[in-house]
């Protein structure tokens, strides 16, 4: 189906605008441009007009949003297993999560940076999916289509955030693992990037979808304005009580658990199926990979809270805390202190 004229016009405008946007090439694996206050790959920005014009959200749609390496993989697994539990019982030996990586079960709606699929072809595939559809995104809230983020939008968003220090450490390890799939240059750039250099870029917000704290704040503010449409989750609290998290997700998605399901252990089965230990040890996640050459095992590391203490100096941690505190001042939001969890 040909794209509407307005999408074609908007795509042309974006293509003309891109060369004039601030450029960042020091953060592998892809060059970034700053647009509306956030740093994103050119390929993602190029696809925004198509997403805005051609994505047709349904009232039953669930969009899983996050800043990269903030619990995305876990949230995808939990949401998918919960919303599709009638069709795919979590105890079933042939459950999709036992055969596919969570990112295959829940696709990103923008260009998938791992699979190199453009938004137009992805959107056509999404039209064929049965409801309720569950889709992922790393886009900042301000760059979501009005059909999703507008006041009259009927679909729902679940956002997971993570302490910035852990998000930074997890992101650095991930980039070093996957950058070689983007070519020799990206791989070499990632391997030569020191923790100190990467930390400077993170503090400046110069990374995929950065600044991280601004990304989080926009979704938190949206959850305050539209609590029935935007559910804000904190990774650290999810880790503390995953069973309560699954029940909260189900209620928000409109598929709460019955008394019989709870007594029958369905919630516990979902928690077990989607646990890091279980997912990490599945054969598909130990030996599988995607078309771009990114191995599934790259999506699973420690999945813990507070690992930043093993990598950042107290001075680095204090500096990032101050940057975040200043940026959030007056907002009413504060990240969970993992030390008290």
Automatic annotation (TrEMBL):
InterPro entries: P-loop_NTPase, Sulfotransferase_dom. Residues 59-332 form the Sulfotransferase domain. Keywords: Transferase. It holds the Pfam family Sulfotransfer_1. GO terms for molecular function: sulfotransferase activity. The keyword Transferase applies. The keyword Transferase applies. Its EC number is 2.8.2.-. Belongs to the sulfotransferase 1 family. This is Sulfotransferase. It comes from Panicum virgatum (Blackwell switchgrass). The lineage of its organism: Eukaryota, Viridiplantae, Streptophyta, Embryophyta, Tracheophyta.
């Amino acid at each position: 189906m040909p794209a509407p004229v307005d999408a074609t016009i908007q795509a042309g405008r974006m293509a003309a605008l891109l060369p004039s946007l601030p450029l960042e090439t020091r953060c592998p694996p892809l060059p970034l441009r700053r647009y509306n206050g956030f740093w994103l790959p050119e390929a993602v920005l190029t696809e925004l007009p198509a997403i805005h014009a051609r994505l047709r959200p349904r009232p039953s749609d669930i969009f899983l949003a996050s800043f990269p390496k903030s619990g995305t993989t876990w949230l995808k697994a939990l949401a998918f297993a919960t919303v599709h539990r009638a069709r795919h019982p979590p105890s079933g030996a042939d459950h999709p999560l036992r055969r596919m990586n969570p990112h295959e079960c829940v696709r990103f709606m923008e260009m998938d940076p791992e699979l190199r699929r453009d938004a137009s072809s992805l959107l056509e595939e999404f039209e064929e999916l049965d409801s309720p559809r569950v889709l992922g995104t790393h886009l900042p809230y301000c760059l979501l289509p009005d059909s999703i983020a507008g006041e009259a939008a009927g679909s729902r968003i679940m956002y997971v955030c993570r302490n910035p220090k852990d998000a930074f450490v997890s992101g650095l390890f991930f980039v070093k693992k996957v950058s070689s799939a983007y070519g020799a240059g990206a791989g070499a750039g990632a391997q030569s990037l020191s923790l100190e250099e990467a930390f400077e870029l993170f503090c400046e917000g110069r990374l995929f979808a950065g600044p991280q704290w601004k990304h989080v704040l926009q979704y938190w503010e949206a959850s305050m304005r539209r609590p029935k449409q935007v559910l804000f989750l904190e990774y650290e609290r999810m880790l503390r009580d995953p069973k309560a998290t699954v029940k909260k997700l189900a209620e928000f998605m409109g598929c709460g658990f019955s008394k019989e399901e709870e007594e029958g252990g369905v919630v516990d089965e979902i928690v077990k199926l989607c646990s890091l230990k279980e997912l990490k040890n599945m054969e598909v996640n130990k030996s599988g990979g995607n078309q771009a050459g990114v191995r599934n095992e790259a999506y699973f590391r420690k999945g813990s809270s507070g690992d930043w203490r093993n990598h950042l100096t107290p001075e680095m941690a204090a500096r990032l805390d101050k940057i975040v505190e200043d940026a959030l001042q007056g907002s009413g939001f504060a990240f969970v202190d993992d030390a008290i969890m």
